[in-house]
Amino acid sequence: MNALIYKGNRIAGLLGRHSVDILRVSLGLVFLGFGVLKFFPGASPAEALVMRTIDTLTLGIIDGRNAVLLTALMECFIGLTLVTGKFLRTGLLVLGLSLVGIMSPLVLFFGDLFPGTPTLEAQYVLKDIVLAAAGLVIAAKALAASPLRLRA
Question: What is the pTM of this model?
Fold first, then answer.
């Protein structure tokens, strides 16, 4: 019985030390994968929603393919910072800003996303709540590991 408790404690210790890093890399791969898809016209199932959302948020300043390319660049940057851990704070800042765009269809196009039951686009946006929560966990660890220093 003691051996089982010992192994359980070792596993708990490993999870405590590495789970947030595993989450960071996993989230980075998700953003990188979805970002790369957006570089290829028609490859991303979110392409039309991205165009419509960015067009609405920027009042038509950024529209169409440029909106998708901007989103692709941001998602790839976020993904690379999360996977590598380099420029992590900057990547988390960009992630925070991009979450405004990612979640805004819930407000901007609620009726279209939920005409009764959730559409596929609605489900795509709703899964982003989990990505946002993962980003918060990663940010909490990153900011705790190297706290901001205020200049006197």
Answer: 0.84
